[in-house]
Design goal:
The complex is a heterodimer of chains A (264) and B (161).
Chain A (H helix, E strand, L loop, with lengths): L4 E3 L4 H10 L3 E4 L5 H6 L7 E4 L9 E4 L2 E5 L4 H6 L1 H6 L1 H8 L4 H6 L2 H7 L6 H7 L3 E4 L3 E3 H4 E3 L2 E2 L7 E7 L3 E8 L6 E10 L2 E7 L6 E2 L1 H7 L6 H4 L16 H19 L1
Parallel strand pairs in A: 1-3, 2-3
Antiparallel strand pairs in A: 4-5, 5-10, 6-7, 6-10, 8-9, 11-12, 12-13, 13-14
Chain B lengths: L1 E7 L2 E7 L5 H8 L18 E4 L2 E4 L12 E3 L12 H8 L9 H14 L5 H7 L11 H10 L12
Parallel strand pairs in B: 1-5
Antiparallel strand pairs in B: 1-2, 3-4, 3-5
The chains are: A alpha+beta (264), B alpha+beta (161).
The complex binds flavin-adenine dinucleotide and FE2/S2 (inorganic) cluster (2 copies).
Chain lengths: 264, 161
Amino acid sequence: MYAFNYHRPSTVQEALLLLKSAEDGKLMAGGQTLIPTLKQRLAQPSDVIDLGRIKELVGITEDGDAVVVGGMTTHGAVATSPLVEARIPGLAALAHLIGDPQVRHRGTIGGSLANNDPSSDYPGAVLALDATIVTDRRKIAADDFFEGMFDTALEEDELITSVRFPVPAKSAYRKFPNPASRYAMAGAMVAVTVGGVRVAITGAGPCGYRWTEAEQALEGGLDPAAIDGLTVAADDLNSDIHASAAYRANLVKVMTKRAVEALA
Amino acid sequence: MSEVSFKVNGSAVTVDVEPRTLLVDALRQNLGLTGTHVGCDTSQCGCCVIHMDGTSVKACTMLAVQAEGSAITTIEGLAQGDELHPMQAAFRDHHGLQCGFCTPGMIMSAVDLLQHNPKPTEREIREWLEGNLCRCTGYHNIVKAIQAAAGSAVSSPMAAE
Ligand SMILES: Cc1cc2nc3c(=O)[nH]c(=O)nc-3n(C[C@H](O)[C@H](O)[C@H](O)COP(=O)(O)OP(=O)(O)OC[C@H]3O[C@@H](n4cnc5c(N)ncnc54)[C@H](O)[C@@H]3O)c2cc1C
Ligand code: FES
Ligand code: FES
């Protein structure tokens, strides 16, 4: 790991100032992606700004018809929150499938979304539940957030403060995990929301996306057979040592059908 | 260099480390607590699992400076004098280890599981161990040891001395 200066601010304001004044500063949340990256010398920030002591970023609250998850809330806290379990059990179940217990004890929703790993799980929930990503300066709709592989609508110095999930009628997530890392080779989250059925796919393409054909097919009813007639083109899907694009294309259908089955 | 103060196995310590020093290196090199192992550089093997403020975490995926003010327990902190912790005793009795490299992390992870879930099912134990890799045992006896530590009757003969 290359050397860096370390800072531990106690407010968002302080963190943003530190980020601005650093030559090449990097925020650190749970460190479950950043620290392995630093260890491999794939990044060389001048300053690491640890968000770990900013209390205002942690916690899960109910706000009207939405559940609001603070940016520094861990996957473990979401997975075991009685509030999330009661209001959006599909979200708690998704968080429970991320990595392993120790990764869930440290890794955060803000870190996961900012990183936007193509095989991460949260994009599925954010897109299917039509969540809003709240930052230090604005609100970003789920549909505008994920821009490409490891690429989001966030500006260089923008900080995710919370994520607002409208409570759906029901939702379910199914993923095919990589057997070693547990990252999604393909995952599908299906939700019945006030705006209709939403189907989000993660793990398969460069970043999470909505599968609109499947949404239309399910408008007539939550029947897994409705997915059968759809074709998934492999052209834009990821191909790596774990799975070919064609295999992922098939997984997209299978995971979607399983999620629909869980809802029906 | 930064001074970092925290508690390890009940004793207050201060170490002088660089910000980039991993917690696992501070434990092993500055404090001589070599029971916490390093088995990978990808945060996947779980040999380095310790407890920070009562929760299991990977000491290889934390900076030492992040531990400031916290209370850490390592494998060395489980036994009471000569008396093994019940989880350690169960691993010994049920042959839950062969080379022993993964064992400190397995035990720290398993102790955390029983804190949250005192009577886990076999499936819950296996799911909980997703972040702990063992290249020797094939896991069955590890699962049995944890079941035994949780008070379930399991049938495995006492390991030979
Ligand atoms: C062994 C292992 C298995 C894993 N398996 C899975 C899995 O199955 N599914 C999955 O989805 N993920 C998985 N992960 C990734 C894990 O969920 C990470 O926790 C997550 O991707 C990053 O979150 P973090 O809080 O650790 O962020 P960090 O690593 O601290 O930061 C990641 C990036 O986000 C930026 N950032 C952090 N917080 C904010 C913020 N609030 N605002 C703006 N930018 C911010 C940082 O600057 C950095 O660039 C795994 C990780 C490991 C080590
Ligand atoms: S040393 Fe492998 S996970 Fe920590
Ligand atoms: S006992 Fe050898 S790695 Fe587990």
